[in-house]
């Protein structure tokens, strides 16, 4: 389930979605990290699901003391409206049982 950061869900009609392929070496996630930090994209929400290994860490895109205390979780969504671009950053592997039973749903409500 998608959980927006503020108020209601954003209108992403016509946006291009980038998402990593979770694999050995984390190359996909590192490429998405580079896109997010280079374009200075803003976090618009996250996905709450039981199908990803739970994790939490420091804000990887911190630029000041104020935002360095923010937390980062396993599936976050970033947006750049000026380029009609939305990015899904997945930071943990899928739980195999959920992959095959279909509990992994990315729906925006």
UniProtKB/TrEMBL annotation:
<dbReference type="InterPro" id="IPR038389">
    <property type="entry name" value="PSMG2_sf"/>
</dbReference>
<dbReference type="GO" id="GO:0043248">
    <property type="term" value="P:proteasome assembly"/>
</dbReference>
<keyword id="KW-0143">Chaperone</keyword>
<protein>
    <recommendedName>
        <fullName>Proteasome assembly chaperone 2</fullName>
    </recommendedName>
</protein>
<dbReference type="InterPro" id="IPR016562">
    <property type="entry name" value="Proteasome_assmbl_chp_2_euk"/>
</dbReference>
<dbReference type="Pfam" id="PF09754">
    <property type="entry name" value="PAC2"/>
</dbReference>
<dbReference type="GO" id="GO:0005829">
    <property type="term" value="C:cytosol"/>
</dbReference>
<dbReference type="GO" id="GO:0005634">
    <property type="term" value="C:nucleus"/>
</dbReference>
<dbReference type="InterPro" id="IPR019151">
    <property type="entry name" value="Proteasome_assmbl_chaperone_2"/>
</dbReference>
<comment type="similarity">
    <text>Belongs to the PSMG2 family.</text>
</comment>
């Amino acid at each position: 389930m998608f959980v927006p950061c503020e108020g209601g869900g954003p209108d992403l009609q016509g946006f291009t979605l980038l998402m990593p392929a979770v694999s050995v070496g984390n190359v996909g996630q590192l490429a998405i990290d580079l896109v997010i930090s280079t374009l200075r994209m803003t976090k618009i929400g996250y996905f709450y699901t039981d199908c990803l290994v739970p994790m939490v860490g420091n804000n990887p895109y911190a630029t000041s003391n104020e935002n360095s205390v923010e937390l980062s979780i396993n599936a976050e969504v970033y947006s750049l409206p000026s380029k009609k671009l939305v990015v899904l950053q997945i930071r943990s592997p899928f739980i195999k049982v959920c992959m095959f039973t279909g509990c992994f749903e990315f729906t925006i409500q």
